[in-house]
Amino acid sequence: MPEKRPRKDTSAAGTPRRVRADAQRNLKTLLEAALAVFATAGVDAPVRDIAEKAGVGVGTLYRHFPQRSDLIVAVFRNEVDACADAAAALAADYSPLEALSRWMQRYVDFIATKRGLAAALYSGNPAYDSLPVYFEQRLRPALQSLLDAAGAAGEVRRDVDPFDLLKAVAQLCNSAPGGDPDHTSRMVGLLLDGLRYGAAGSKARPGF
């Protein structure tokens, strides 16, 4: 009997990978669009506005996020992840103190983003209950790594609790007159200068 040839796979090589890549692009675009729409129109903005801005159909949005709360949670977590991941990237490119300074300004940008989500995050909806823990689990170690490096270099004091610093910066952001970003940046710069007091490499001595 003649040898049977293997059946030819009619599916295009790599199609599943392309589908996954397309889905990932759609997801990224949707999150970016949702963030922009939430910032200008609030979290109750029509989902069709988000889909249109992302350049996808409403059905695509609902496939990824069946509930509005699913989308809000995803936007928040995505922004937290981006802020946390920036710590390692900055540490690789800048001196310890400069990396810390730049990351704190990056965190200020994150707080501004969070304002657009505030109506939902503080609504009491149990869908958002896990977000404060996620915030701390991702951002606390990111900031700790930068503080440790700057402390080891003698550029900042070594007794700073990263979560205290996160809260302090958030309070500065929320208390800025009219939400003025320039005012916030100046205040965060002063806060960073305060971290240098008592550092190993500082000439200032406690009590003076």
List the helices and strands and how they pair.
Elements: H1 15-41, H2 47-54, H3 58-64, H4 68-93, H5 96-121, H6 131-152, H7 162-175, H8 181-195
Helix pairs in contact: 1-2, 1-4, 1-5, 4-5, 4-6, 5-6, 5-7, 5-8, 7-8
Q: What do you see in this structure?
A:
There is one protein chain. With 208 residues, the protein is mainly α. It has two domains: 14-66, Arc Repressor Mutant, subunit A (Orthogonal Bundle), CATH 1.10.10; 72-201, Tetracycline Repressor, domain 2, CATH 1.10.357.10. It is 70% helix and 0% strand. The chain has eight helices and no strands. It has helices at residues 15-41, 47-54, 58-64, 68-93, 96-121, 131-152, 162-175, 181-195. The longest helix has 27 residues, at 15-41. The chain is elongated. The N and C termini lie far apart (98 Å). The model is unreliable at 1-15 and 204-208 (pLDDT under 50).
Q: Might you state the CATH topology name of the largest domain?
A: Tetracycline Repressor, domain 2
C-alpha Rg (nearest Å): 23 Å
Number of helices: 8
> What's the level 1 CATH class of the largest domain?
Mainly Alpha
Structural class category: mainly alpha
Provide the number of structural domains.
Answer: 2
Q: How do the SSEs run, as a string of H and E?
A: HHHHHHHH
Report on the biggest sheet. Answer: none
* CATH architectural type of the largest domain: Orthogonal Bundle
Q: For the record, what is the CATH homologous superfamily label of the largest domain?
A: Tetracycline Repressor, domain 2
Low-confidence stretches are 1-15, 204-208
Helix content: 55-70%
Distance between the termini: 98 Å
Question: Hey, roughly how much beta strand do the residues contain?
Answer: under 5%
Q: Give the overall shape.
A: elongated
Q: What is the number of E strands? A: 0
Give average pLDDT, whole number: 85
